[in-house]
Amino acid sequence: MRADRPDGPGPRRVLVLGGTGTIGRATVRALAARGHAVVCLVRRRDPSGPADPVPWPAGVTARVADVTDPASLARDGIRGEAFDVMVSCLASRTGLPDDAWAIDYQAQVNALEAAKAAGVTQVILLSAICVQKPVLAFQHAKLAFERALMQSGLAYTIVRPTAFFKSLSGQIDRVMRGKPFLVFGDGLLTACKPISDDDLGSYLADCIDAEDRRNRVLPIGGPGEAITPKAQGEHLFALLGREPRFRHVPVRLLDGIIAVLSTLGRWVPALAAKAELARIGRYYATESMLVLDPATGRYDARATPSTGTETLFAYYARVVRGETTAERGDHAVF
After folding, report:
1. R_g over Cα of the chain
2. First to last CA, the chain
3. Local structure of residue 179 (DSSP, 8 states)
4. Beta strands in 103-255 (DSSP E)
5. Measured by CB atoms within 10 angstroms of the end CB, which terminus of the chain is less buried, N or C?
6. 168 φ, ψ to 5°?
7. Which pLDDT does position 330 carry in this prediction?
């Protein structure tokens, strides 16, 4: 055992990937609150400018490193130092095939190898519950890295959360402006148990010392019952004191858009990318973010574990009151 590694629960040196996203920042806060020494690797959005301006908590160090470049990871990120744990909240920004395989798979593999060389013995990975039914490039890329992690010989915890609050906040502004809430079909095609950034960040941080989460793949949702898109809209209108107004979009409209873009994309690469984004949108419009029962092929809300304290509707209420803003970032496509 390395001399500076604690024998039991206590502060660790934690290497964090993807710490500038909303979930990553919540995870970094939770790790720092538990006394861990955190080194967060960040990527520079503007090559000529500074790294992302994030107010890091005490005990957190940010280092600019290119996770797609093993040499940069070693030189700029690890710097020859030793670490105990790696926590990865890294995810591709678009979900497009090239981006997904470069980030969701290859960059994660690069980081895994660098972490092993730095003495890491435990990895906490933020994945996604949608990989249960993989049809999209980013889902296959995530699964490929999950397999690589399981075969690495390191202790691991793979966390597959259901929907995030930010993914379900895109219509708050339009409803507040008097527009109808958009739903696919009757608004009951899908359901989820959304989880807040802070609740998920706490869950990820607690995986370090939770022996019962070691070497497991864990689906997780937020508190309360599963929620349909129709229920989301109804609650938003109730918060605003208005009668619910819905606009029903047929799924076949998405199918038509995908078919046209896919055909044109054979000659125009930009349209092929738009077709993939439309396929991603269709997936989320028609598949529930709940545990999938392999025996029946159906999603099971009762089998989807819950954690945390903040509900989606409490979050909606805070947004409506102006106490917080719906920070969606790269989830705007959804």
Report:
1. 20
2. 46
3. P
4. 122-126, 155-161, 181-184, 216-220, 246-249
5. N
6. -115, 20
7. 52
Would you place residue 2 in the very low, low, confident or very high pLDDT band (cuts 50, 70, 90)? very low
Distance of alpha carbon 40 from alpha carbon 301, whole angstroms: 35
Q: Which two tokens stand for residue 45?
A: 């959005």
The one-character DSSP state at 75 is I
The DSSP bridge partners found for residue 14 are 38, 85
Decide if 191 contacts 221 (C-beta within 8 A). Answer: no
How confident is the model at residue 53, as a pLDDT?
56
Side-by-side strand order, sheet with 122-126: 60-64, 37-42, 13-17, 85-88, 122-126, 155-161, 216-220
Could you tell me the pLDDT band of residue 43, with boundaries at 50, 70 and 90?
confident
- Give 120's DSSP letter: -
pLDDT-derived band at 6 (thresholds 50, 70, 90) equals: very low
3-class SS at 76?
helix
Residue 324: what pLDDT? 83
Which tokens sit at 268?
A: 């125009």
What is the per-residue pLDDT across 91-125, written as a single tens digit (0 to 9) for each?
A: 999 999 999 999 999 999 999 999 999 999 999 99
Q: How far apart are CA 306 and CA 315, in angstroms?
A: 17
At 232, is the secondary structure helix, strand, or coil? helix
Distance between CA atoms of residues 266 and 103, nearest Å: 25
SS (H, E, C) 275-291: HHHHHHHHHHHHCCECE
Contact 141, 108 (CB under 8 A): no
CA separation (Å) from 73 to 66, 142, 153? 6, 20, 21
